[in-house]
Structures are given as structure tokens and as C-alpha cells.
Amino acid sequence: ELTTVTGDAEKGTFSIEVASTSGINVGDWVCVSLVNNDPALVAEELAPHATSSNWTELNDNGVQIYDYHQVKQISGNTLTFYEPIMRKIEAKWDGRLISIRIMRMWEWKT
After folding, report:
1. Nearest Cα to 88, choosing from 70, 68, 67, 71?
2. pLDDT above 90 coverage of the chain, percent
3. Spatial contact of 31 and 16, defined as CB atoms under 8 Å apart
4. pLDDT of 51
5. CB-CB contact of 79 with 24 (8 Å)
6. What is the distance between the terminal CA atoms of the chain, rounded to a whole angstrom?
């Protein structure tokens, strides 16, 4: 885990506010991660539908979001990505930013 998400961001935007950008560099790949089983968040995610008691994975582990991005710019505690954010981010749900490693497959020419 690199840091926590401290600001809200709308779907389709490119920037988020985090507690610290220490250890994060332009060009790094990161994942905005949210795993939370707060009933209000689950209800928001499923709206207009309701959860069912037999949906044990959702009820036990909650909403699980993993949104991958490459860092384009760092300004203070704001990170800007090359890719748009794919789901609305709300700091109140305790999102995290985690480091990921991208393995690239190179084409060998003979």
C-alpha cells in the first residue's frame, strides 16, 4: 500500500487526491483499490436493486474495485493519470492506492 485516497473524483476524470505522494513517480503504475462491505456502499453499487442474503461473497467481502492507472503528473498530493477513472471515487469509503508492477512481453525478432 502506497497511500490512502483523501479526495473525491468523478468517473471519467483523470486526477485524485491522496494523503501522500511519497514513493510515487511519474510513469509508475498504480491501482486505486476499494474493498469495503459497508451496507450503504453495497446499496449504492447495486442501486436500484437490493442485495440478497444468499449473496455471501458480496455481503461478506463487499464492493471490490481495482482500477489500474499510469501516473502522468504529480502536483502536491494530486495524482493525474493517463487513463480516465472508471468508477466514482469517494474518500469516505477508505480507498487505497497500491503499487503494481507491469511485466512487458517483448517481441523477439529472428
Report:
1. 67
2. 54
3. no
4. 84
5. yes
6. 41
Kindly report whether the peptide bond that precedes residue 84 is cis, defined as omega within 30 degrees of 0: no
What count of Cα atoms within 13 Å lies in the side-chain half-sphere of residue 69?
28
3-state helix, strand, coil in the chain (%, to 5): 15, 35, 50
| pLDDT attached to residue 69 | 93
Q: Which grid coordinates are listed for 1? A: 500500500
Sheet holding 78-81, edge to edge: 3-4, 96-99, 29-36, 63-75, 78-81, 15-17
Residues 97 and 110: their CA atoms lie apart, in Å, by 41
20, 3 Cβ separation under 8 angstroms: yes
* Long-range contacts at 87-93 (CB < 8 A, ≥ 24 apart): 87/11, 88/8, 88/9, 88/10, 88/11, 89/5, 89/8, 89/9, 89/16, 89/32, 89/34, 90/8, 91/5, 91/6, 91/7, 91/8, 91/17, 93/34, 93/36, 93/38, 93/41, 93/63
